[in-house]
Amino acid sequence: MTGRVVDALVVGAGFAGLRSLHTLRERGYDVAVIEANDDIGGVWYVNRYPGARCDVESYDYSLSFSPELEQEWRWSERYATQPEILRYVEHVAQRFDLRRDVHLSTRMERAEFDETTGRWRVDTDRGTWDARYLVMATGQLSVRAAPGIPGADDFAGTTLHTADWPHEGADLSGKRVGVIGTGSSGTQLIPVVAREAAHLTVFQRTPNFSVPANNGPIDDARDAEVKAGYADRRERARRSPSGLGFVPNKQSALEVSDDERRALYEEQWRTAGFGFLLAYYDLMLDQEANDTAADFVRAKIAEKVDDPATAAKLMPRGHPFGAKRPPVDSGYFETFNRDDVDLVDLRETPIERITPTGVRTTAGEVGLDVLVFATGFDAMTGALLRPEIVGRGGETLREHWDAGPRTYLGVGVAGFPNLFVIAGPGSPSLLSNVLLSIEAHVDWLADLLDHARDRGATVVEADPGAEARWVEQVNARAEATLYPRADSYYMGTNVPGKPRVFTPYVGGVRGYRRILESVVADGYDGFLLSGKGRDVRAS
Ligand code: NA7
């Protein structure tokens, strides 16, 4: 059994939790991390499916707080694979001696704020912790969404989930494999499985816009070049809307000629990956502008896929390009040119049920040996709402978020003092280079806690009015974009019963950072500080 008294208990040992541990420890807090999995790494520990990679470039999806770490780590590819990222996590943990404060195989079950002591009592399946601060670093994509397809338990073959792939791997050779889901996970997995399996059937409910990764090895000259200018690269990323360093084009897609636009799209297609979305500033703001990019991607699909009927099925329609997170793929569409790969369009022939021998759609049964679910996550709020978290007056977080997540700046929650969320709902989070957003949050939170400590405050909480205004701002910003026009995990529509609310803050990393800075300049405006039985002025 574990459990003891600490200044800060961090939940989750992925990048957010490990970075929180390192930084808060450096600032002199007594910190412990609990992690439900049996090892560190968070999403990168569990998402071990073949083909799993980051869709942000390695140099940007890496920790920035230590120039020495930046210089000594050598990424091998433009987009790192899951095993390489996990090796990096392990290196970071060793280099900064993090493991000694990480308690593995320890799941948080309940937390309750004690209004008399201003501390959290946190119950886990391996003991109880007493912490002044509770830092939720539980990840945005760590709870799987239940696909709700009848008969899933009846399947007599092997059932796999992309986020629960066996550590020893799965032998798919000679097997008839079915994959349900064509989001980022499915799109990465499908080309790899197609090469290994005897036959692959892809069950697609919604076709996805996907952009090519243009992945490749990093040679020594390129590595030296990036490392020579790493500080500038980081600063560029912090000042960019996406946290990826792309400078958005100030032009509208509609103010240039068709030829000029096509030329830029071609160039972005060959080079940009995720940055394709920033080819023009209004691609996510104006449907007509977005249509130009969507038409371009559809034309690319037609070029890549030999059979016109299959190409037509793969072409997304009815939602804006980018409103569902576009996968960054390596040979996804081309996979459908193989003779041993079939596409089942579930809009035409929906799944009726999973049977012991395969998947039955309205067109009949597809016999399978292996069924893979790439069906996504209860994103952003799933892991925060799984344990019971009880704040002031006995209110639970589930009650507080009944109509959708409510936070102040995506960090604090009114009525839940001393509870903080890293890259939570209402912050750029998954809409950005999430690792950059994690680091920004951790540093900002550490400053806030120091500020409280300097003033003798022991309780830090978001003011309900500040929270209400922030929620309004998050919603208003989202409504001004095309994002709410698609069903997506950003909107929570993939989880039955989840409120239909756009969860991340859409105003970009750069704008969000300015807001955080102005909150600090105003003496942490919107946070209430108190302690030792008296109110403490915030500034
Ligand atoms: P996503 O992007 O949520 O994709 C899930 C996919 O699974 C998507 O194509 C869904 O179709 C499909 N799905 C979900 N439930 C069903 C059922 N019941 N029947 C058929 N198809 C279904 O999750 P990913 O894991 O791919 O990616 C998550 C993030 O990880 C990604 O954005 C990156 O940031 C990394 P739908 O579109 O809902 O019709």
Automatic annotation (TrEMBL):
Enzyme Commission numbers on file: 1.14.13.-
Gene3D superfamilies: FAD/NAD(P)-binding domain (3.50.50.60)
Record-linked InterPro entries: FAD-binding_Monooxygenases (IPR050775), FAD/NAD-bd_sf (IPR036188)
Top-level lineage group: Bacteria
Pfam families, sorted: Pyr_redox_3
Keywords for this protein: FAD, Flavoprotein, Monooxygenase, NADP, Oxidoreductase
Required co-factors: FAD
Keyword NADP: yes
Molecular function via GO: oxidoreductase activity
Keyword NADP appears in the UniProt entry: yes
Family: Belongs to the FAD-binding monooxygenase family.
Official protein name in the record: NAD(P)/FAD-dependent oxidoreductase
UniProt source species: Pseudonocardia alni subsp. carboxydivorans
Taxon lineage: Bacteria, Bacillati, Actinomycetota, Actinomycetes, Pseudonocardiales
